[in-house]
């Protein structure tokens, strides 16, 4: 598995090289990779090699980190979808992107995305998951924003990245909390800690964090709005992301974490309610949309809501139904998206209302393929979508908690899916109003959507061919799952009658709206739409950032120092005083009269520095402070440190003296309020550091590093002064870095001074 995933990433980075030699055949060459993976997985399945199969690569032995991968029934099913649909997308994209710009970049990122998705579904520990999770977000951002010269593409890409990145942070928190509770970071072993997790006080925070992460990725309400905007991406991206890959990542997580966090009322209520709301909202918005890609995007949101609700209900029937629907959706939705791209190319528009009249006569092949997929989408026999729909209806009819809500949600969604079916087949192809010319496309572009459409029909007629693989995946989600057999016909039962009712109501809604020219109006909710809230929130954050920058980054070093010290004082002070507590060993405080005199001299000199208006006087006072502190170091037995401090102090004073003639002879007097503020910050910071030092001496840290330095400073580094040895030997690279920074800063100042002189001479 590691070699397989690594090979995909290597292939991706070689794409620019291959483009020079392969040109228009590049995508067909790249399609060999997903096809090889698909065939290998099928061979593995047909040879009856037992699951699970694990593979790992050590990353860091000290921290016990490794890249672990795990192939079981669930990851096998998702890997088949990613590679199988991926192969067809490459074939389709070869024709679709033939005349497009930046093809090399497009296929490189698409290949990286495919590798990231495979890595995500095969990953077996939280580190691997997080790496591939974020990689899918980054690559999808680049794919959505492929046409970066368009403002809409840039906006959609940023929106998708911000929403999914927010979810990634939530997921990170959830996985970290899970690790804290169980001390287990291998996903395949977490199911053993189900009782511990579900009864722990951190269960609700863990559940919310993991759920929010998956909600954002799978476009669940109220995070669903990024998905329709992502239609700014090229159609092959939409077909791949919204059928088998990115939006299914969250669904995969619900399935994977069901035996870990599921089986509770909280899990069922959260997932099933959010899923139910999402499926209704998505279905209604799909019927309302005129843009064919946005229509399909909203229907995808609805379908993802169906899957979320199924895994939320979590019964044996629900898990099986949800897994069946994942396959059905992948087949019909990839077909419809690819056909939407073809229709866009041929008609020159994405708006269904602007399609040329009687399109079914002019594009008979396109009409047939769309109908094949749309029948499955609407859940009409004998397509695989009908099999999935029957199972979903069985699921809600036999559920106990919130059964009325589930039935209503599935029925409403099914009704509007049927209405959308007529939009795709009748409104799009039987219009009699708009005139327009059609552009020609290569016949090969129809191959990929035809394959997926026929697969939906074949699996509908012979659904039992998938029973074993779906049962294997379901058994991973539901440990006590008993193998089930799929069938096209289950007789005249309640599920069939509900399915028939949804078809009749959906047909009535479509033709009634067509006759009365009626459209759904949701203006009441416009201002409350999550997308509007996102826009206002985004603008608010930008405004807050500008205001904050104007207040903090003023260009005055004094203000920067003040803000830095205030943050340290507030955060560290609060933690120290109210969390850790003050601990002082009064017996260890041993101050000599000589040290008190030096301390008094330092305070007097500092006071004189603060209140004098003469630059020279201030510098002299600072030099007195430096000398007094150096004597304190010397008296404490650190002559090297004292010498270093004197040299630095002397150098600093010298630099100040050299530039003194450029400054006003007298310093501007600050307001008394400003002086009081500065004094409070300075005294507070000094007091805090003093108290921290007292606490450290009272209860020294039990650090192995301290012992290491003590044992090796003289024996290994040949130095008796531990501080010096640390600076120039053990942490020599840190010291070198600091010296380099100072040198670069000095060169920059020197260049600026010379530049100023040269300008004056000119």
Automatic annotation (TrEMBL):
All residue ranges annotated as the NADH:quinone oxidoreductase/Mrp antiporter transmembrane domain in the record: 123-413
Stretches that traverse the bilayer: 6-23, 28-47, 67-93, 105-123, 129-145, 157-182, 202-227, 267-288, 295-313, 319-343, 363-385, 405-424, 445-462, 495-514, 560-579, 591-611, 618-636, 642-660, 680-698, 739-756
Native organism: Marivirga tractuosa (strain ATCC 23168 / DSM 4126 / NBRC 15989 / NCIMB 1408 / VKM B-1430 / H-43)
Keyword Mitochondrion: no
UniProt entry keywords in alphabetical sequence: Antiport, Cell membrane, Ion transport, Membrane, Transmembrane, Transmembrane helix, Transport
Name of the protein described by the UniProt record: NADH/Ubiquinone/plastoquinone (Complex I)
InterPro entries: CPA3_Na-H_Antiporter_A, MrpA_C/MbhD, MrpA_C/MbhE, ND/Mrp_TM, Nuo/plastoQ_OxRdtase_6_NuoJ, Proton_antipo_N
GO cellular component: plasma membrane
NADH-Ubiquinone oxidoreductase (complex I) chain 5 N-terminal domain location: 62-107
């Amino acid at each position: 598995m590691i070699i397989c995933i690594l090979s995909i990433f290597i292939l991706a980075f070689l794409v620019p090289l291959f483009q020079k030699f392969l040109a228009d055949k590049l995508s067909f060459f790249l399609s060999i990779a997903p096809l090889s993976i698909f065939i290998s997985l099928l061979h593995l399945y047909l040879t009856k090699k037992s699951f699970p199969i694990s593979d790992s690569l050590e990353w860091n032995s000290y921290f016990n980190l490794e890249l672990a991968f795990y192939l079981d029934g669930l990851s096998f099913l998702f890997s088949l979808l990613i590679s199988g649909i991926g192969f067809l997308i490459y074939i389709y994209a070869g024709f679709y992107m033939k005349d497009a710009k930046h093809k090399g970049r497009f296929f490189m990122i698409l290949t990286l995305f495919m590798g990231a998705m495979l890595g995500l579904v095969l990953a077996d520990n939280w580190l691997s998951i997080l790496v591939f999770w974020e990689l899918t977000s980054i690559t999808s951002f680049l794919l959505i924003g492929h046409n970066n010269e368009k403002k809409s593409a840039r906006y959609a890409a940023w929106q998708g990245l911000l929403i999914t990145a927010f979810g990634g942070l939530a997921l990170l928190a959830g996985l970290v909390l899970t690790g804290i509770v169980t001390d287990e970071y291998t996903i395949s072993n977490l199911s053993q800690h189900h009782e511990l997790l579900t009864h722990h006080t951190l269960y609700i925070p863990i559940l919310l964090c993991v759920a929010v992460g998956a909600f954002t990725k799978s476009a669940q309400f109220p995070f669903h709005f990024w998905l329709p905007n992502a239609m700014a991406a090229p159609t092959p991206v939409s077909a791949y992301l919204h059928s088998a890959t990115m939006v299914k990542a969250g669904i995969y997580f619900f399935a994977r974490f069901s035996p870990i966090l599921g089986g509770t009322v909280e899990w069922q209520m959260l997932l099933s309610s959010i899923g139910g709301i999402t499926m209704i909202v998505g279905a209604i918005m799909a019927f309302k949309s005129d843009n064919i890609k946005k229509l399909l995007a909203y229907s995808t949101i609805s379908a993802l809501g169906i899957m979320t609700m199924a895994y939320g209900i979590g019964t044996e029937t629900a898990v099986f139904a949800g897994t069946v629907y994942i396959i059905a959706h992948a087949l019909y939705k990839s077909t419809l998206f690819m056909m939407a791209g073809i229709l866009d190319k041929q008609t020159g528009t994405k708006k269904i209302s602007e399609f040329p009249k009687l399109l079914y006569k002019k594009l008979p092949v396109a009409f047939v393929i769309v109908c094949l997929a749309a029948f499955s989408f609407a859940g009409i026999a004998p397509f695989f979508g009908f099999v999935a729909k029957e199972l979903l209806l069985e699921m809600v009819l036999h559920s106990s908690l919130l059964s009325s809500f589930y039935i209503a949600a599935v029925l409403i969604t099914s009704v509007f899916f049927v209405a959308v079916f007529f939009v795709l087949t009748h409104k799009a192809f039987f219009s009699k109003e708009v005139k327009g010319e059609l552009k020609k496309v290569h016949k090969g572009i129809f191959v990929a959507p035809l394959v997926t459409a026929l697969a939906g029909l074949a699996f509908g007629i012979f659904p039992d061919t998938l029973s074993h693989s779906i049962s294997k995946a379901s058994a991973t989600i539901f440990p006590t799952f008993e193998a089930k057999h799929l069938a096209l016909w289950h007789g005249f039962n309640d599920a069939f009658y509900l399915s028939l009712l949804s078809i009749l109501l959906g047909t009535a809604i479509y033709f009634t709206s067509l006759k009365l020219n009626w459209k759904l109006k949701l203006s009441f909710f416009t201002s409350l739409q999550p997308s509007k809230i996102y826009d206002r929130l985004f603008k608010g954050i930008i405004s807050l950032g500008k205001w904050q920058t104007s207040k903090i980054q003023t260009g005055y070093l004094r203000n920067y120092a003040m803000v830095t010290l205030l943050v340290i004082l507030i955060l560290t002070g609060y933690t120290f005083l109210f969390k850790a507590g003050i601990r002082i060993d009064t017996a260890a405080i041993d101050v000599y009269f000589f040290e008190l005199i030096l301390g008094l001299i330092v305070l007097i000199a500092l006071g004189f520095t603060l209140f004098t208006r003469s630059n020279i006087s201030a510098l002299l006072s600072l030099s007195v402070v430096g000398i007094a502190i150096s004597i304190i170091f010397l008296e404490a037995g650190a002559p090297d440190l004292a010498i270093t401090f004197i040299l630095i102090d002397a150098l600093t004073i010298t630099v100040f003296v050299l530039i003194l003639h450029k400054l006003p002879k007298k310093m501007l007097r600050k307001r008394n309020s400003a002086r009081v503020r500065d004094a409070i910050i300075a005294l507070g910071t000094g007091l805090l550091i003093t108290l921290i030092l007292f606490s450290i001496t009272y209860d020294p840290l039990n650090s192995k590093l301290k012992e290491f330095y003590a044992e090796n400073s003289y024996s290994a580094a040949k130095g008796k002064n531990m501080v010096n040895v640390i600076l120039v030997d053990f942490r020599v690279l840190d010291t070198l870095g600091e010296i380099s920074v100072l040198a670069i800063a000095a060169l920059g100042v020197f260049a600026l001074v010379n530049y100023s002189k040269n300008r004056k001479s000119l």
